[in-house]
Write a structure and sequence with these properties.
alpha/beta, 9-stranded mixed β-sheet, about 25% helix, about 475 residues
Length: about 475
């Protein structure tokens, strides 16, 4: 009887255990099903095209952009590239293209978009490379002669379209991770007040079928001028960007797209103390420092990837707005008269939403240019797209307050900052997005006339390469309106 009772108890226990196991399996299956439904799958494709101009077949010298005039290219150290990532959700395709050049005007971006009509949105940005060919016209043989070869601009447009189509052909189902670290040791702020935007953002895409190695590709966003080779270099190069991309490409065995973010204010690799492996301090304007800086930035990307988290990038929503900005810089007016700066003129009415074309009779005090702001709302990642070199103060809500008494517009209100308006669990910024308007600085920090701020004896650099003092109020205001639009 005892034996029978023990047998019954054992059988009952086994039944309970089996039932529990079955319930666990069902629960696991249910959880797995839910997880499978919530794991985001997006399609991603990467591609690149070589933009390096020929130095032997060119009809005219290739002028190197940035710093002074008449800096003719004498060789090619590394290729000038267009690097593209295409994101696809259902029938919606978005292309992000980064060019190793100093800037790309809005009218050129419009031409590219016209050739990609099936894309929901095409963004073309520049790394703001000061060691590549002049694409804006400002660094020709003299201040009164453009450095742009129109045939080269057409060549760029053709290659950009080709890179987008190639990335589209490479589309694969993917999942994404995002990592962010701060790297203040790799930034120098050359203008007072000192405000750094030192967030380094890295996106890693991998196959949605499982496994993160090798990745399908990386997207890196950093806030610094690529100008480590300085003003004496005459070899075309992508500057430190080339070395960062090579470091990551070799380590992770995948393509890499580099995006420039907040570079106004002025964020630079010059004057950053960089040492070689033996501890020797490296000099600006040398390949040793440029290579080492690029590799250290790559190592910082490693740190970001080590802490990367899954990120959902759908649904993909694009908000974009075209508008006008008053052009009040007298140097820009002079450049336009001389044919050095070629931009279509619009009429400034005081309302940025008025897109009234101008002509050669438009007075200088009413001239404006057409540009664009955008926000890419990619699920949990929100990306601000700003058409120039915006100051960190305007992105991070760190505008000086109280204002320095030497400022030209001490009563100017603080502009609404970009990141607070942007929202999102994760944030990223693309500067020089779809245009290059020059520096975008807080109006209350504008300092062109004496007495100068901070007790300085001469004005700081920045205003002379800005479209005007109302650029920041206009651009930040339009971005604020953009983010108020219903999703």
């Amino acid at each position: 009887m005892v034996a029978i009772r023990k047998g019954l108890i054992a059988a009952l226990m086994l039944g309970l255990l089996a039932g529990a196991a079955w319930l666990g399996q069902q629960a696991g299956a249910t959880v797995g099903a839910v997880a499978a439904q919530t794991v985001e799958v997006i399609e991603v494709g990467f591609a690149s095209e070589d933009l390096t101009p020929s130095l032997t077949e060119a009809r005219r010298p290739v002028y190197v952009a940035g710093f002074g005039h008449n800096r003719k290219a004498t060789g090619v150290h590394d290729p000038i590239m267009a690097r593209t990532v295409v994101l696809k959700e259902g029938d919606k395709k978005i292309a992000l293209v980064s060019l190793d050049i100093v800037g790309y005007f809005h009218a050129e971006v419009v031409k590219v978009r016209e050739r990609l009509p099936d894309f929901h949105y095409v963004l073309v940005t520049s790394t703001h490379n000061h060691e590549g060919p002049d694409t804006l016209g400002l660094w020709g043989p003299s201040p009164v002669v453009s450095g742009v070869d129109p045939a080269y601009l057409e060549f760029i447009a053709n290659r950009v379209v080709a890179s987008v189509r190639a990335a589209e052909r490479n589309l694969k189902p993917a999942a994404a991770q995002i990592g962010v670290v701060q790297a203040p040791e790799l930034l120098h702020d050359s203008r007072e007040p000192r405000v750094l935007h030192d967030d380094l953002v890295v996106l890693r895409f991998h196959s949605s079928a499982g496994g993160v190695r090798p990745p399908l590709g990386l997207v890196v966003q950093w806030n610094c001028h690529p100008e480590t080779m300085n003003s004496k270099n005459t070899e075309l190069t992508a500057d430190y960007v080339y070395f960062t991309i090579e470091y990551l490409r070799k380590k992770y065995d995948c393509p890499v797209v580099y995006l420039t973010g907040t570079v106004g204010g002025l964020m630079t690799s010059l004057h950053v103390p960089i040492k070689d492996e033996a501890g020797n301090l490296l000099k600006d304007g040398t390949w040793d420092k440029t290579r080492r800086y690029g590799e250290l930035l790559g190592a910082a990307c490693d740190r970001a990837l080590a802490r990367a988290e899954p990120v959902r990038l759908t649904p993909m929503t694009v908000r974009a707005r075209q508008f006008t900005v008053a052009m009040t810089n007298p140097l820009y007016h002079l450049g336009r008269k001389l044919g050095v700066l070629k931009r279509d003129v619009y009429v400034w009415t005081g309302n940025p939403a008025d897109l009234q074309p101008g002509d050669n009779k438009t007075p200088e005090d009413r001239m404006a240019v057409r540009t664009e702001v955008a926000a890419l709302l990619l699920g949990e990642l929100h990306v601000a797209c700003i058409p120039g070199e915006i100051y960190p103060e305007l992105v991070l809500d760190k505008i000086q307050d109280p204002v320095d008494p030497g400022a030209d517009f001490p009563e100017a209100p603080k502009e609404p900052a970009i990141y607070p308006a942007l929202g999102g669990r994760w944030q990223m910024i693309i500067g020089l997005a779809n245009d290059q308007l020059g520096y975008i600085l807080p109006k209350r920090q504008w300092d062109e006339k004496p007495p100068f701020c901070y007790g300085r004896q001469k004005k700081q650099y920045g205003e002379e390469n800005s479209i005007g003092s109302d650029a920041a109020p206009t651009i930040c205001g339009m971005f604020q309106e953009l983010m108020r639009m219903p999703r």
